[in-house]
């Protein structure tokens, strides 16, 4: 795409909140020249003296990018990264030392990691952003922080005691989604407006789809929603990946109705091509065409890496107007406790988020910024016992290593997904022992007719860390005696009992609105990510055994204890609360 | 103080903002028991697998607490801290490892550092908080983050286009203060309400004092302010320490007018008893009674440390009603880039801030939380070259070492303060070469009458990192030809020129309101903290030489370049902006 024909990003300032419009612009650059006067005695900056930082070096033993094998056993080799007290270089993007990393810095981010990520984003992650000049980035303290800043920027608080209903703003989201995002919106008095989903993610058309919601907006609820929160890869909890075709449909609707799109994609590199294949093999057809081996950047610039080219691209790749704000994080690629990520959007939006950052988080911790900078772009020492500190054998991740690490991670999670889903796929049915207990008669393969009931269904997760399992409560023998909600609660408790001993996340904790609440009890989310690889199959077998034994129950005795109900309700209230993680 | 007679903290919920009232309470504890079921297969939590965190160990070479000598040369000995991949212990407050530190955690903070600080705060820092049960804490990402959460909790945004003026809230602060705090308030449409200060800090009584401001509040501006932002030790920029007597007066006014007090004390341990002594020695009398060698906790519980007992106590020590929210940070005691601190307040306030934290920063970075936890409370290895890694000689900071480190820091900054202020003290006057150029005739000491003009004045900073210098513009020979503002700008530029080469922070960047703006040009803030110790005296001599040569100027040629004016204006706009530090 040539620069000459690129469109300018839209002016989005009519979407900004009162406080965010009101922040003063910064033009400090003209002052920097005074800092640069040779031998100037600086009485102006109120900084602590760096000799009083108690750390002389910061070090880590760090995996090689090749540790995680896409198909074989992981290796355990490690290198050392060392961050010294001070490095003498005028190039701030190469100056990784404690004197700068632990001092006050710039809100955009620590220059070495900021400049690396800016290049990664513009040249490799999103090489085909259509608008003039391309996107900018700013570091965040992870995606929850990033989303809270986007919400601060784009929404005004609505207080029913002092504001008119016409002033009430709203946020669009998938009907089942990451509840911490919803908990960011709701205290501000905003409408949470759910859009129906299928196995891919948000629906553009059809009943409850985006068009339906926007076109038939009931203005008695407030303003038509102008902000969207969406998880498009390995959607949490449904595990769907949004196809490029669907993205184009949804983007066009957002253009038509002037909606800002916040794309939260912590699982972006965890896309599982084998899920399409396996699903097809088991079921004759996948829910979607298999994109395996497809190069998404075939028509535009390549990312430079076959792995990245094979991944479904971000909304940014079709964002002609600059209405996409993308959230990326190191939580799933390095570690959640990093609390480090970045926000990508058109420059004017990043400028506003910079103003917000300056008076809130200021900058992510220099400890994590410098350690990750040194891990990815610094020089590293091969670990050979304690003497490594003195032997300066240089290696490094660099861009190649970073992409290799992402690919390795994908492999590890993809194997767990396959192990879990194979067991789930092969055990959906309960084959009844006597004809009178069965409720459905159907064909299995082609070679036999037996009595069976389907206990659950699921779509193979095409990305992420979870499978989303629909409980077929209508096939349970006790369905005439108890409500589906009662059965669902009893089932959750049943699973926690011996010999099943399974803890699953109930659908309630992802239900973003009243429409989702109507069917929330029909779902559970099962995570394969946190399990040791050798546990996935046996644990999943325990889970399906829990299904079977529940379907064989003739009563719900011992499954309705108040404590347990309270526990489930507290899970519902508290996904992401107190224990701040994805959905738990 | 016995528990029986302690008052209950007040219910402050009438101060909460709309969004903060609206956050759902958390009661997740009842769910924890499911996690504790032996051998439970956890499909519920959506956490990454810890083997995919690329760090096997995290290490640092760390100063011993005795490194900084209150009076002698610092030593350079260092120990190693090592954070291993995994530690097996059921005690979460002792489990410092990467498997927990880099995983999702709790919003309150990483258990080892949280529990250490909670004990430090309750038993040592503030052993005499009067209300029942004492205060609670939560970790923050530094005091700017902490203040932004307090502002989110206690204020509602006011938008002139949709709200009544009666709804406009306001925040009280010192007339000159840390501008990032003001920049947190102003975009929300709040009134910034300045209170006059003297050498100690905020005035309770007299013109422009707190009583005057609150009693004579003009309701046409909005609600009477119900929130105060105050820096009470080493106030930024004035360097004052607020006495216990003044605190009692101000607290009583805040009780009367129902004001919440946010005490931001990053410089708390940097209190300089010698400043009172030196000031008295030079001037015959200090501006305040010398508190040197006083034990502030003599009437209550001791902190257990003579050093801590000798420090002016927090507002918390007189907070019978629970209306004080205190912000502490590791920025000045470990390093600014840590972005780690904590908030102390009555439990109900901490509970609300926990709800805010869960949907914004979630938790500070596990890298910094674990490194600081291991530094202070973990086992450490003495550094003896690279072999140290294998020799498990255990040492540690612990509570004693932590307090010793704080005392050492105080010593280092106190020496710099003394070096700077001695030079300032001894060079305030310009002794005129011929009688016709002098504007004032006065007595020096007692032994001689000479012609002299006082170029500047200052109060010795009793704490912190800065001296606040008043420029006596009225004594300048050119005062009849140019306005004071013009002279002040020219002086700032003059200082940056050879041979002076001094960069000082102009008063404008700390002027919080229109009353402060009237006199802002009469002040500069000079920081001694960032300088190497051997530079402080010679740099300060260059500064006073700059004063002298400016007072000898017969014109302002070359000092009114637009660029320079722009630079000063951008400093004014941008203290704390872009380059996020204290006032620069």
From TrEMBL, chains A, B:
Give every Aminotransferase class I/classII large domain span.
Answer: 226-393
Cofactor(s), by name? pyridoxal 5'-phosphate
Q: Which residues form a coiled coil?
A: none
Q: Name one GO biological process term.
A: alpha-amino acid metabolic process
| Pfam families listed in its UniProt record | Aminotran_1_2 (PF00155)
Q: What is this protein called?
A: Aromatic amino acid aminotransferase
Keyword Cell membrane tagged: no
Q: Return the Gene3D superfamilies for the record.
A: Type I PLP-dependent aspartate aminotransferase-like (Major domain)
**Family from the record:** Belongs to the class-I pyridoxal-phosphate-dependent aminotransferase family.
Q: Which domain of life is it from?
A: Eukaryota
A GO molecular function held by the record: pyridoxal phosphate binding
Keyword line:
Aminotransferase, Pyridoxal phosphate, Transferase
